[in-house]
Amino acid sequence: MRGRSVTLLDRRESVAWARDTEGRRVQAAEGLLASETALSSLRGGYPEINAVREALAGWRFYHAFRTDKTSPLRRPGLATTAPMLNADGSNLAAVFATLRHIRQDTVDLDLAINDAFPGAQLVVPVPTDRSTFSLIFSDLPKRPFDASELSDGTLHFLALLGALLAYRLPPFIALNEPETSLHPSLLPPLARAIAKAATRTQVWVVTHSRELADSIAQETGVLPREVVRKGGGTWLAGLNDLGFFPDDD
Asked: Are residues 53 and 67 both part of a single domain?
């Protein structure tokens, strides 16, 4: 039998109330700024809330990697072990080096690069004080292009591969408009990389590209859901008022 619901955390303007270890509703924080979250302000004494905060802290949200001349993606990175990609992609070279020289397994990464750029080869030198990478294309086999020379779309695609195929994936990955700056020919390879990552973790994709959505559906069998306007707000097309999709099994 289901019991009644209990509010564990409640915020009213600058004050947050929470349930302590005894289940009592107590004032947990006050004087919160509009830019501060209640979750980030609470510490010990709230085990359920702490568990939620720790779970959320492990998620990764990737949106609009910078690819301008001063982008972190274009600069050499620290020679550190990088099991997963930072939100801004600043450790991309270290992510590749971790796969190549620590796990010594870049099969999925190499396949994804060849899928997108047939005949291309990712070069990842053994890091010294810095980690770097370059890409060799089939039509110029003796001319490696380092990160500062790659096109915006190519660099963005490599960053997405770093997020999706890293040594260790977070429990949840959100990609917001990953098709940005990508050539249409890269969308099916991206969908295949997303499908590969989805065998290891949960991946959530928000996209304006019908081609990408259809490609992901083809690779995974998961139907895309369309966000529509309804009653002055947003809604998922096909979702009934009870919160179910009639076409779900």
From this structure: no
**Of 48-57, 63-72, 123-132, which range is least confident?**
48-57
Burial class (CB in 10 A: 0-12, 13-18, 19+), 70: exposed
Same domain, 185 and 66: yes
Q: Within this chain, do residues 144 and 120 fall inside the same structural domain, yes or no? A: yes
For residue range 1-45, list pLDDT tens digits in order. Answer: 456 788 889 999 999 999 888 888 889 889 999 888 888 888 777
Buried b (16+ CB within 10 A) or exposed e, 88-115: bbbbbbbbbbbbbeeeeebebbbebbee
pLDDT tens-digit readout, 53-66? 888 889 999 998 99
Q: Are residues 51 and 169 in the same domain?
A: no
Task: Describe the crossing of helices 187-197 and 152-164 by its angle, rounded to 10 degrees.
Answer: 10
Q: Could you tell me the pTM of the whole model? A: 0.86
Domain containing residue 174: CATH number? 3.40.50.300
Q: What is the pLDDT of residue 1?
A: 44
Q: 167 lies in which domain range?
A: 60-236
